[in-house]
Amino acid sequence: xxxxxxxxxxxxxxxxxxxxxxxxxxxxxxxxxxxxxxxxxxxxxxxxxxxxxxxxxxxxxxxxxxxxxxxxxxxxxxxxxxxxxxxxxxxxxxxxxxxxxxxxxxxxxxxxxxxxxxxxxxxxxxxxxx
Length: 130
Description:
Layout (H helix, E strand, L loop, with lengths): L1 E12 L2 H12 L2 E4 L9 E5 L5 E7 L2 H4 L10 E9 L1 H11 L4 E4 L5 E7 L5 E7 L2
Parallel strand pairs: 1-4, 5-8
Antiparallel strand pairs: 1-5, 2-3, 3-4, 6-7, 7-8
């Protein structure tokens, strides 16, 4: 398995307008819709000046997120990494006894593996075309 870089961060928010305005206003980032999202999903991509999505803002949903968390680290939902070696990662998780969940999305050419580190940090490992 090889990690090639940070893909994005995800923030769960109870106030989409204030959150997106903050990143637009303070950093000059560009807020846009998520190009491919499941029906009923409320979220935005916040991109850098080059159009690279950096922050994924997701509307709070009690059924999915439980209690709305705020404060330092509380709103951070997961860290996503761009990776290579999908099958190798699954095997390594099995070998090390690390629980994982695969998300074979129904659209696009992206496969994902989700794991949780010992501190409870959720990691989304993204494999494009792998």
